[in-house]
Amino acid sequence: MLSKTSSPSGPAVPNRAATTPSLLTPKQAARHLNLSVSWLAKRRLAGDGPPYGKLGGAVRYAEASLQQWMKAQQRTSTSGS
Predict the structure, then answer these.
(1) Among 7, 50, 59, 62, which is most buried by a count of CB atoms within 10 Å?
(2) Numbers of helices and strands, H then E, in the chain
(3) Cα separation, 30 vs 26, whole angstroms
(4) How confident is the model over 55-74, as pLDDT tens digits?
(5) How many other β-carbons are positioned within 10 Å of the β-carbon of residue 58?
(6) What are the helix (H) ranges across the chain?
(7) What are the beta bridge partners of residue 53?
(8) What's the pLDDT tens digit per position in 25-45?
(9) How far apart are CA 25 and CA 60, in angstroms?
């Protein structure tokens, strides 16, 4: 019996969904971070927001990058930076 990821003429092909990162639109990313879309746009312009990419002119955020960026923003004190 053949598995779903193998073809009769060749070796198994990796599952594309498992290797493709989840890309979010600015609206989805804002919802994920509980921030506004305009805040994300301002942070892109300033260069200090979460990392993003542009695909054909469309801004996209990798979900894993948003998680890493959120962790980097954690603070233990309100004094200093």
Answers:
(1) 50
(2) 4, 3
(3) 6
(4) 999 999 999 999 999 999 99
(5) 10
(6) 16-19, 26-33, 37-46, 63-72
(7) 60
(8) 999 999 999 999 999 999 999
(9) 5
Cβ burial 19-38 (10 Å sphere, 16+ → b, else e): eeeebbebebbbeebeeeee
Q: Of 2, 57, 35, 22, which is closest to residue 49 (Cα–Cα)?
A: 35
For residue 58, give the H/E element and its range.
strand 58-62
The length of the chain, given as a count of residues: 81
Q: Are strands 23-24 and 58-62 parallel, antiparallel or unpaired?
A: antiparallel
Closest C-alpha among 38, 30, 39, 35 to residue 61:
30
36 contact partners, CB below 8 Å, separation of at least 6: 30
Residue with tokens 């301002």: 42
pTM of the complete model: 0.71
